[in-house]
Known about the structure:
Blueprint: H1 6-17, E1 31-33, H2 35-39, H3 43-57, E2 63-66, H4 94-103, E3 107-112, E4 115-117, H5 123-128, E5 134-135, E6 144-146, E7 149-153, H6 159-172, E8 180-183, E9 195-197, E10 204-205, H7 206-228, E11 237-238, H8 260-275, H9 295-305, E12 312-313, E13 317-318, E14 324-325, H10 336-348, H11 350-363, E15 368-369, H12 371-374, E16 388-390, E17 394-396, E18 406-411, E19 420-422, E20 428-429, E21 433-438, E22 446-448
Parallel strand pairs: 1-2, 1-12, 2-3, 3-8, 8-11
Antiparallel strand pairs: 4-7, 5-9, 6-7, 9-10, 13-14, 15-16, 16-17, 17-22, 18-21, 19-20, 19-22
Helix pairs in contact: 3-4, 6-7, 9-10
Amino acid sequence: MVGDTPAEVIAQWMHLIGGTARVPAWSVGFAQTAMGLADASDAQNQLDQFIDKVRAHGVPINSFHYGSGYSTGVGARGKQRYVFTWNTSKFPDPKTLNAKFNANGMRLVANIKPCLLDDHPAYESVKAAGGFITNAKTGQPIVEPYWDGMGSHLDFTNPASIAWWQQGLKAQVLDYGIDVGWNDNNEYAILDDDAVSSGFGTSIPMHRSKPLHSMLMTRSTYEAQRANQPSEPVYTITRAGSPGIQRYAQTWSGDNTTSWHTLKWNIRTGLQMSLSGLFNIGHDVGGFYGAIPSPELFLRWVQACCLNPRMVMNSWKQDASGGHFSNVPWMHPEVTKDVIAAIELRYKLMPYLLECFERASAHHEPIIRPTFYDFPNDEECFKDSDDFMLGSQYLVAPVVEEGARTRRVYLPKLPTGQAWRDFEGGEVFASGQYHTVDAPLGKLPLFKR
């Protein structure tokens, strides 16, 4: 593949690997998870209260993503996740809860995992159908550590496994009022050197088919959702996949840690993913693991991610007492107003964001991209920076340094007579120059051509 610009090469690559899935408009809105709440002993009550808090704070939101806590076991093995099961002691009436989410404007996404623990209710029946990755020498399912237990991975090159997966997804997720499967922990990090998959009738060594399984798992979820809701585009999520996964799913940079360093380098990660053909991407806002972010770090993270294709607050943290804690827009009262304003900025630009998603699908254009994508003849754009373009019209300059209240930004060269305009204040800036602009705590520097 050759071309005069990065844009030409990327478009050829995207044509080769099948282009980008169209998504329903609601999936482009802000989304929230609260994994600690779903793991609580009174999870349904906690999430019921969460819905009330969303409305009390006036947070614009389109969807809620269930972490896998809804599927945890009971008793001594309460930490384990059993895919396609509901813990009815924590969720005595999940359909009523899901209806309340819907009534408050939130569509629903549920975490699903491709490994059955060895005491899963369906383990023996799936084993009898040959539905697991097996050892080539013994013919038995490979059992390895998974989520605080021992389990076997489903073989998505076996039609019986695909059928079981799609039936379980419909019966235990979609029929409960949930719209989307979130394909998680699907890297297939199987260690057994003799592992094989069935290969639809021709056995394949696992080291050759490893990336195929995350793809086929996601496609199986995609197809089940399409059959369940044929009238709208399909939106699904995956944590892993090979080139071509963008035909089926949104992805993200995985479980990041809370730090200014991570905030800065997640921006590069997102741009790398975009240049590699994964246009519908984002990061866990505020950090997934690690310390609870300070008010300043949290707000700057929200600002940096509010114009990414995916904007989801997803976290698994502990507070000072050792209890679970979730990043939520109101977690720091002193910056809550500005956090919500950053989320509202996403909605102000929603028509433009949707246009970018459409261009990604129809014209193979990244939604966010380095400035050199749009300005390949401007040498300054190839220098390292924290800036990125949102489509062809907006330049986003997140603040990623603690205590910073100004931001030095290079505004690329435009044709004669054109300039850049500050989105919020309207100030006009000359192109082809560096500028130091005001960046008070409540402002994301954003410029329009």
